[in-house]
């Protein structure tokens, strides 16, 4: 486990009674303290992702993750606003989707959706180990393809992520410190429609 | 909880040691026994999805789910091969993504990926309640837009799903019975790349 000096306040979140605490106590912090993650724990995190469901069991998810030697290369492929806090992550990485089915080479319309499932799985395994993840849309996609020689006809760089150990909120500079609070959610009635789609 | 007469055999699955059992014991069965799900449990399942992470906290996921009165309508919007087993589901539904960000009306490139995260979260909450989910790519997308009056400029129908109670494998007809076994996965080395992308 990776002890943290900080206990985030989830009391403003309003899960429906009986929802497992694993859901509302997951969040995406930016205050991280540079800490080495044991290789076994890293393998556990990505192995959890392996078991996600996928269309035709294609398993279109690929994870390209930093090592100690390559961390700065990965960091430079995030947009600058993300670099400022993500420099304290333990590991940085990119979720990459295989665009076509292996069995027939046709486009896999579920590839990105299935990558989202795998990403959520790795996040929950990280939390079980005491670690946090933070997904990032703010990545330099063109530079990622060229830096790593990823064939963009066959693979799609979908998102970036940081894995790290939570540090105290007060360690963050502005404006990040103002954002460092578990975010709220829409009421369930705005995302769940039973029997009919809401008409404008 | 929803007791099942059947204990699936996960012994062929090979999680890395220390991976939480919630990951390799999740699967997508087809043998379901028609059972009413308590409304509170259904709300718990979709509330868990609510807490998934999303780009700009947009929460682009929408869930359109069947009621008792509308079940047959939902069933008819699956491809025939899925209708045969999904008729025994307790609830059918569709994951729908809001295509644009609410704050600036620009396309949300992460919407489908974020929907995958929400789908995985609802699946884990379902398992915690003793229920199973089964995602479906085989749905009649055009008919779903028209049947429910979904504006396809603003929303994308991403996937279908069934939620149900596991029944014995032997209740399934051919060919489904042959498929009713927890599926294997690629070795971790085929999806996790540390420091470099594999070159052909």
Give a summary of the structure in a few sentences.
2 copies of one chain form a homodimer. With 200 residues, chain A is of the alpha+beta class.
Note down, in words, how this protein is organized.
The structure is a homodimer of 200-residue chains. Chain A is α+β, with helices and mostly antiparallel strands. Chain A has one domain: NADH Oxidase, CATH 3.40.109. Helix content of chain A is 27%, strand content 18%. Chain A contains 6 helices and 6 strands, in the order E-H-E-H-H-E-H-E-H-E-H-E. Chain A has helices at 39-50, 71-75, 80-86, 111-128, 141-148, 176-179; strands at 32-33, 61-65, 91-98, 132-136, 155-166, 192-194. In chain A, strands 1, 2, 3, 4 and 5 form a 5-stranded antiparallel beta sheet that branches. The longest helix of chain A is centred in the middle third of the chain and has 18 residues, at 111-128. Chain A is globular and about 50 Å long. In chain A, 46% of the residues are buried. The mean pLDDT of chain A is 97. Strand 6 (192-194) of chain A pairs parallel with strand 1 (61-65) of chain B, so a sheet runs across the interface.
